[in-house]
Amino acid sequence: MAKKSLIEKEKKKRKLVERYRITRQSLKKRINSSLTIQDKLTISIKLQSLPRSSAPVRLRNRCSLTGRPRSNYRDFGLSRHVLREMAHTCLLPGVSKSSW
Known about the structure:
This protein has about 100 residues and is mainly alpha-helical. It has 2 domains: about 1-60; about 60-95, no CATH class. Helix content is about 50%, strand content about 5%. The chain has helices spanning about 5-35, 35-50, 80-90; strands at about 70-75, 80. Strands 1-2 form a two-stranded antiparallel ribbon. It is found in: Plastid, Chloroplast. GO terms for molecular function: rRNA binding; structural constituent of ribosome. Belongs to the universal ribosomal protein uS14 family.
């Protein structure tokens, strides 16, 4: 189980990313559509003035049950440990252990 503080910090980042998502997208569209270098520079300065944690690149995928940051499966939102346990107990529909 991950530390509670790290999980809460990640939740705050997700809220911040969602709050600045529209402004960030509009600034990026303006950069791509502008023709002069001076316009691109001024718009990029506005983009850089936004909080760093509002960039979606800074988010980390975590397991929805345990909060584990590594070895997550995007399709399920679970880490490999939890995925294996849930597959064995038949809690995930359509997932079965392969026998070979």
